[in-house]
Amino acid sequence: MRQLRFATVGSVDDGKSTLIGRLLYDSKSIFEDQLEHVEAVSKRRGDDYVDLSLLTDGLRAEREQGITIDVAHRYFATPKRSFVIMDCPGHVQYTRNMVTGTSTADLAIILIDARNGVVEQTRRHSILTSLLGVPHLVVCVNKMDLVGYSEERFNEIRDDFEDFASRLQLRDVTFLPISALKGDNVVERSDDLKWFEGPTLLHHLENVYTASDDNRIDVRFPVQYVIRPRTAEHHDYRGYAGTVAGGVLRVGDEIVVLPSGLSSRITGIDSADGPLDEAVPGSAVTILLAEDLSITRGDMFCRPNNRPRVLQDHDAMLCWLDSDAHLNPAKLYTLKHTTRSTRAKIGDVRYVLDISDLHRKVPEGPLSMNDIARVTVHTAEPLLRDDYEHNRVTGSFILVDDSTGATAAAGMLLPPRE
Fold first, then answer.
1. Which of 137, 215, 232, 287 is deepest in the core (most CB within 10 A)?
2. What is the per-residue pLDDT across 184-205, written as a single tens digit (0 to 9) for each?
3. What digits encode the pLDDT tens for the residues 108-148?
4. CATH for the stretch 309-414
């Protein structure tokens, strides 16, 4: 079973870091000295319990404030599966970090405090999870111990979330009642939640089916680097390194190189583990071709009869991430798409999404941090692109403000208007 990348999101103090600490602790995925350190810090702070959130809150500022700022990555494995955890920040000012962490996730866990129910950040994170096309969502109603493990309260929150999320494109949603602090229904079942007949969180993570999530039909291979060793042993070696963004590449396959339109045949696929017969989405490989072609970074391999759109004008959903600058319609930004970079300008802002009720509002001013809007984008050079709903790699981009070097926005490409 393939590795699962999952992100934890939610409002401040909903228990994200504690949940990850509980998963690591109860699955015996931490070292003894780590546990001793966490116990010592908890005691020094006057806590009467072991604060498992300290296992993930690695930054000093986070430990002092008791919140998550950066995206903390943790790795653990069980006999059934290996995992990459992305613990994303909950505070509104760090939404950009949440977007970064969730953009590559197979699954997202949204935590909801059982006392507070669905709040604004829950809605914001749910919208972003939908826009980012995360295939699987687990809604964990946390801190059930603080509401007396009430089945009625759990059902109330579930119904409230479902009412809001019915207008989102969420494909696979699972609801779980848990207590990260007490460990109820995280790794082990709880006598206090006997009324819940579903799985524990870890059991669900181990068994969620992800093999069909990747686009294995549309071959997309953005070239990142041309490898020419120029040594006596490899004097005629010419390889094209990159990560498979879609489809399955096999030795012997015919491919076309865009934007030139030149064609060739795959003669070899090299990887860090040696030669391969095929490369699947997410594989970092080097492709060898039968002919020596003029190929450079930013070119893309695809099937002769299955090509991406080649466009300069685009519709997109844009999440503005820059806390220090608004969108400037007169400004040129650097747009980074797969391995290509080009200049771009934002045209019309068609509407801004109201995250409280999903209504489309007329923008009252320039886009500012955390605004989500539908816009038009014009690029100086054509993009070799797919719609985001078909391919999360070739359908996404970021905008960089050249004057500051800041990532200004993240965008998802929509089907072009006819």
1. 287
2. 999 999 999 999 999 999 999 9
3. 999 999 999 998 888 888 888 888 888 999 999 999 999 99
4. 2.40.30.10
Same fold? 221-302, 309-414:
yes
Fold adopted by 4-207? Rossmann fold (3.40.50)
Least confident of 6-10, 53-57, 157-161, 319-323: 53-57
Q: Domain spanning 221-302: which superfamily?
A: Translation factors (2.40.30.10)
3-state secondary structure of 180: coil
Sign for the pseudo-dihedral over CA of 343, 225, 246, 109: negative
Question: Could you give the 3-state DSSP secondary structure of residue 152?
Answer: helix
Comparing CA positions, the residue from 63, 109, 89 lying closest to residue 11 is: 89
Query: pTM score, two decimals?
Result: 0.81
φ, ψ at 188 (rounded to 5°): -115, 150
Distances (CA, A) of 179 to 20, 140, 185, 238, 353: 12, 9, 7, 55, 33
- Are residues 110 and 138 in contact, defined by beta-carbon separation less than 8 angstroms? yes
Q: Where are the domains of the chain?
A: 4-207, 221-302, 309-414
Q: What are the start-end ranges of the E strands in 274-395?
A: 274-276, 278-279, 284-289, 300-302, 309-320, 333-337, 340-353, 360-361, 372-385
Neighbours of 404 (CB within 10 A): 11
